[in-house]
């Protein structure tokens, strides 16, 4: 019960002190304070937020990762940092696993990676560049799941996230007077063509994917001017990295064709790529056994395929031999991840910590 209470205290602190990506300064300080109090070796970085700690001895290194940043969103009419994705819970569960393991005699080293900027899709790269997975053979992540995926008391050994990327583009046509449309090249016509085009992209229905316009900016206050210039953005997702490449190529080809058809310029760039999950069967089976040991067979859920993305999967993209999986914790989370008023059953935190600790022990 003492560890469970400490986990809740950790969660409550992080929940009430959210910080957005790359600005998790006080969060990092708090983590350092916790490690110092536990007499755990750790190090921080002079140029980025985040922290890496390690316990145990031995040649083998097993790692567990928690993301530490919050979102910036409107909550009850106020724009603020907000832990609506549950990274406060992820930190609390990973710290709980550390508490379970810290006094044991370990025959391996256990590394705890507290990673910044997951919400921007590139925080994991900063940790990789700074040696977070050097010598690591197995890596585990953890995340609460929305109620439609997993109810409280159920835990899955693998989350198969999809791939995601943003496209930012600009249309350069010609402004014209509203009475003389033939003299211009209307960016709104081009936007309409792009919208219709992305809705007509088809691949096999057996693998999920989507492309949609998420931002359009064009025109000014004068309603008698046909705008020639527009900015637009797309959110593009697929369940696999291979399909993502095909989807990007089809979109690029389509934009070039639309530009030629309307005789305008369309420039664009791809940003904030997040890869789809490359789940290790070895790591998944270890996690599956740990869940069964902790909670029993009835509470052990099948692997989940989800359309969300997570930069956790850069760790395996950059180190393919790494045995990695992300464990999903059922928590009756609702209304959903990224909802400003997201809530969940806090008893799930102790469950997640126990499962993580047993997974590490079994590795």
Automatic annotation (TrEMBL):
UniProt keyword annotations, A-Z: Hydrolase
Keyword Ion transport listed: no
Keyword Hydrolase: yes
EC number: 3.5.1.-
Domain of life: Bacteria
Gene Ontology MF terms in the entry: hydrolase activity
InterPro entries: Amidohydrolase (IPR017439), Bact_exopeptidase_dim_dom (IPR036264), Peptidase_M20 (IPR002933), Peptidase_M20_dimer (IPR011650)
Domain Peptidase M20 dimerisation, first and last residues per copy: 170-256
NCBIfam families the UniProt entry points to: amidohydrolases
Record's protein name: Amidohydrolase
Taxonomic lineage: Bacteria, Bacillati, Bacillota, Bacilli, Bacillales
């Amino acid at each position: 019960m003492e560890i469970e209470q400490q986990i809740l205290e950790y969660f409550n602190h992080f929940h009430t002190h959210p910080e957005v990506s790359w600005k998790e300064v006080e969060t990092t300080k708090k983590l350092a304070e916790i490690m110092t109090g536990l007499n755990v070796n750790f190090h921080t970085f002079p140029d980025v937020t985040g922290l890496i700690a390690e316990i145990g001895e031995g040649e083998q290194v097993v790692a567990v990762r928690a993301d530490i940043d919050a979102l910036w969103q409107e909550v009850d009419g106020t724009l603020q940092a907000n832990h609506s994705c549950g990274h406060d819970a992820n930190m609390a569960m990973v710290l709980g696993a550390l508490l379970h393991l810290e006094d044991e005699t370990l025959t391996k080293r256990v590394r705890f990676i507290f990673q910044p900027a997951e919400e921007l899709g590139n925080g994991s790269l900063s940790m990789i560049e700074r040696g977070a997975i050097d010598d690591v053979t197995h890596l585990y992540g953890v995340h609460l799941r929305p109620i439609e995926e997993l109810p409280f008391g159920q835990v899955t050994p693998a989350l198969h996230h999809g791939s995601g990327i943003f496209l930012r583009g600009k249309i350069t046509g010609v402004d014209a007077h509203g009475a003389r449309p033939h003299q211009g090249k209307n960016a709104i016509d081009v936007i309409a063509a792009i919208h219709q085009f992305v809705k007509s992209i088809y691949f096999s229905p057996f693998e999920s994917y989507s492309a949609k316009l998420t931002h359009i900016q064009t025109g000014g206050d004068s309603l008698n001017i046909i705008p020639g210039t527009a900015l637009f953005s797309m959110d593009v997702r697929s369940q696999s990295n291979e399909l993502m490449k095909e989807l990007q190529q089809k979109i690029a080809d389509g934009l070039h064709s639309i530009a030629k058809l309307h005789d305008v310029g369309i420039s664009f760039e791809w940003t904030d790529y997040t890869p789809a999950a490359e789940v290790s069967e070895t790591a998944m089976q270890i996690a599956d056994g740990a869940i069964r040991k902790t909670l029993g067979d009835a509470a052990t859920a099948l692997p989940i395929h989800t359309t969300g993305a997570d930069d956790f999967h850069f760790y395996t993209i950059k180190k393919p031999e790494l045995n990695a999986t992300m464990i999903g914790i059922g928590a009756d989370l609702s209304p959903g991840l990224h909802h400003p008023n997201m809530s969940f059953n806090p008893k799930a935190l102790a469950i997640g910590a126990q499962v993580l600790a047993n997974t590490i022990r079994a590795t």
